[in-house]
Write a sequence for this structure.
């Protein structure tokens, strides 16, 4: 089985169809595949690493935490972003300080704050309770009336075909 799992890990970096099939098979195998995926991560390209991150998230096993934390040093900003978000969604213990270092590295590289990598890292820090979201005062004031209107009016249907009757105004 181990040789089969190792082959599947190598296929994570293959063409899209082959990679997708390997991903599905590794998820089906489950937690038994995690050590082989962790061992294979350094030998995968960016596409394979992104696919491995998806496998880890789908499995939900915290044993992948140290390997994910190691990928925060990847040369690929998309890998770093996906890793940050996976660390938060898996609630990996010990991820906060590495995420803070990754955020500082974004600042040192002068990565624009609205790009996906720093946004993903900030989201992860917020989800893990290490950061409070900051809303500029002007933006917060714009939200307040909309929130009051929503609370007073109640839920709105999402489609005219939904079972909820659309509110009408008298003619």
């Amino acid at each position: 089985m181990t040789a089969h799992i190792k082959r599947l890990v190598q296929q994570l970096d293959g063409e899209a169809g082959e990679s997708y099939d390997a991903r599905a098979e590794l998820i089906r195998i489950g937690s038994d595949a995690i050590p082989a995926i962790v061992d294979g991560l350094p030998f995968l390209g960016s596409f394979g690493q992104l696919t491995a991150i998806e496998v880890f998230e789908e499995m939900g096993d915290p044993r992948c935490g140290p390997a994910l934390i190691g990928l925060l040093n990847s040369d690929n900003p998309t890998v770093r972003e996906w890793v940050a978000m996976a660390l938060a969604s898996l609630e990996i213990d010990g991820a906060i300080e590495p995420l803070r270092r990754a955020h500082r590295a974004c600042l040192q590289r002068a990565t624009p704050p609205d790009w996906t990598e720093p946004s993903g890292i900030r989201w992860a820090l917020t989800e893990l309770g290490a950061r409070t979201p900051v809303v500029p005062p002007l933006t917060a004031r714009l939200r307040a009336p909309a929130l009051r209107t929503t609370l007073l009016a109640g839920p709105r249907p999402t489609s005219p075909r939904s079972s909820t009757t659309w509110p009408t105004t008298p003619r």
User: Anything to note?
Assistant: The longest helix spans residues 137-153.
